């Protein structure tokens, strides 16, 4: 199993001891993996969307070749089964092979398990990770929790931004910071 942590600092590890440290030196590869693993809505993503996010400045032909090469590299490093496709138009990450904390976080919220969600939360999405050559990826990752579904989960449960489940997380005794202020107050929440 591959473990990908995108809440807080980006971390990638393999339960079988494989060395994945080289991934950290390939930011676009890491960004694509993070995007696919934390995708919201869950599931396969359109290749055209990925091309626009990660290779906006190059021709369609070159962008498709770059995406194909990146997916090939991901399969080589993580295993053939880690990356799934549907025809030539859609690509995603196998949830059976790649575990992502953002997906587990959202599943915990969906199942009304705030303790589990709180245990998974380590900080904002992709803290300290930047991909300057892909500004659309940067914008997609910073739209108030849109990629991870933090805000979506809060809105479904309470309709009041952080007043929903995220507010409940903040009121949880283990979530309280010094002076009684919940440290999760600054969680990004999508509005409108």
List keywords for this structure.
alpha+beta, three-stranded antiparallel sheet, Arc Repressor Mutant, subunit A, disordered C terminus, 2 domains
What does this molecule look like?
There is one protein chain. With 192 residues, the protein is α+β, with helices and mostly antiparallel strands. It has helices at residues 27-37, 47-54, 60-78, 101-110, 114-120, 135-141, 150-158, 165-171; strands at residues 2-5, 11-14, 45-46, 83-86, 90-93, 98-100. The chain has two domains: 2-98, Winged helix-like DNA-binding domain superfamily/Winged helix DNA-binding domain (Arc Repressor Mutant, subunit A, Orthogonal Bundle); 111-186, no CATH class. It contains eight helices and six strands; from the N terminus they run ββαβααβββααααα. The strands form two sheets. Strands 2-1-6 form a three-stranded mixed β-sheet. Strands 3-5-4 form a three-stranded antiparallel β-sheet. A hairpin with a 3-residue loop joins strand 4 and strand 5 (90-93). Helix 2 (47-54) crosses helix 3 (60-78). The chain is globular, with a radius of gyration of 17 Å.
Brief summary:
The chain is an alpha+beta fold and 192 residues long. It has eight helices and six strands.
């Amino acid at each position: 199993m591959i473990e990908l942590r995108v809440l807080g600092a980006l971390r990638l590890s393999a339960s079988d001891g494989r060395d994945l440290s080289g991934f950290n030196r390939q930011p676009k590869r890491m960004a694509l993996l993070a995007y696919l693993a934390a995708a919201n809505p869950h599931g396969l993503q359109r290749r055209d969307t990925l091309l626009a996010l990660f290779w906006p400045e190059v021709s369609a032909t070159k962008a498709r070749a770059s995406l194909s090469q990146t997916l090939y590299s991901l399969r080589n490093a993580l295993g053939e089964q880690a990356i799934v496709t549907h025809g030539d138009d859609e690509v995603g990450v196998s949830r059976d092979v790649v575990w992502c904390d953002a997906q587990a976080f959202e599943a915990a919220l969906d199942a009304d398990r705030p303790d589990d969600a709180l245990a998974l939360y380590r900080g904002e999405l992709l803290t300290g990770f930047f991909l300057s050559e892909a500004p659309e990826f940067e914008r997609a990752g910073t739209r108030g929790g849109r990629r991870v579904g933090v805000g979506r989960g809060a809105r479904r449960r309470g309709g009041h931004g952080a007043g929903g489940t995220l507010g409940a997380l903040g009121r949880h005794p283990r979530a309280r910071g010094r002076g009684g202020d919940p440290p999760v107050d600054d969680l990004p929440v999508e509005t409108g």
